[in-house]
Amino acid sequence: MKSLIEARKRLLGRNLSIAYDVPLKIVRGSMQYLYDEDGRQYLDGYNNVAHVGHCHPKVVEAGLRQMQALNTNTRYLHDTILNYAERLTSTLPDPLNVCYFVNSGSEANELAVRLARAHTNARDMIVLDHAYHGNTTTLIDLSPYKHDGPGGNGPPSWVHKVPLPRMADDAQNVVEVIGTTQKLCGFIAESMPSVAGQIVLPQGYLNRVYDAVRAAGGVCIADEVQTGYGRIGTHFWAFESYGVVPDIVVLGKPIGNGHPIGAVITTPAIAGSFDNGMEFFSTFGGNTVSCAIGLAVLEVVQDENLQAHALAVGTHLLNGLRELQKHHDLIADVRGSGLFIGVELTKDDAPATEEAHRIVNAMRNNAILIGTDGPSHNVLKIRPPMPFTMNDADHLLTTLQKAL
Ligand code: PMP
Q1: Residue 108: partners with Cβ closer than 8 Å, 6 or more residues away
Q2: Ligand 1 site-directed mutation target among 48, 49, 106, most atoms within 8 Å of CB
């Protein structure tokens, strides 16, 4: 273990982090379980990327079959990319029916910003405080979590940050920012802010924000990288839970179940503005193997009714966590929807950062993986692969009780 850590330090950029005080060397995954090199099984309560389960056989099979047949790019005709786009857009409300495929959530958000700029000929963007949208230069500018954090240089003049809302009336903050801009490009937000601490936005907030942004000529971008594909249980997309329809939807993480796929879906009008003569091409975006995998993931989500499953198991877990809250002063709030859950820990009304750290490590030592998030890293973050069962939820609850 020590030699691996030393080799990482020598060979890889030093600002990669490693989870847990005692790092894990994972060598195998199967559905909601991970295995270390000694064969110890860990219950995965954290990795949302393996959405339909680590190494789901149907996804592996689809990738393998396509890798043996062909892997090439979007400059040739192929059925799979169209079947995938057809199936993906059928999960979204009209007029969201034009797809672009790329290779990561960052690339997808980056492209979303290009689409927004092409459509509005403007630059000013509004973002929520503590948001994270990706690792590119532009997206660090749009991510207060990064540019306001260690090593950050603050936002550039075209980025306007509004506080996380506590009630619908907080949409007024967006209206006020719009008043300070000459021309608005748009508003970008996760439909349920994750890095900010697994937050469910107040009902009515996005409706008012979207109205104000559109009235000012801007476009509304929903970052569904963490929240899409049925995770929140009640709806397939988290924006649907507020009754809004974005102009651009950004997808990543779960849609490839670990294979790098990002996607942007927008309206014909915005796609038309972007089609200005300059070709759009991504060497790997929309490649044949990625599309076969992406299609298989979507089929599994739908065929295995994972959204309904996330609602049932997630509600059971949330109820169990609220029961724990009654007996543990450390738990200030339990929130979330489906298998998108946050447990905020405080002590004497201050963020219980140290306690959160110790609990997550105690859980890891008891073979259950969860994480922390939020500006003070005091929110336990639970967002397991979707096959997570009722028994897994009960096991997590008993172990968490002991850790607390
Ligand atoms: N948006 C959100 C909400 C994310 O959580 C992330 C990744 N954590 C990204 C975008 C960037 O995705 P990627 O790491 O695949 O580039």
Answers
A1: 100, 102, 225, 250, 251, 252, 262, 263, 264
A2: 106
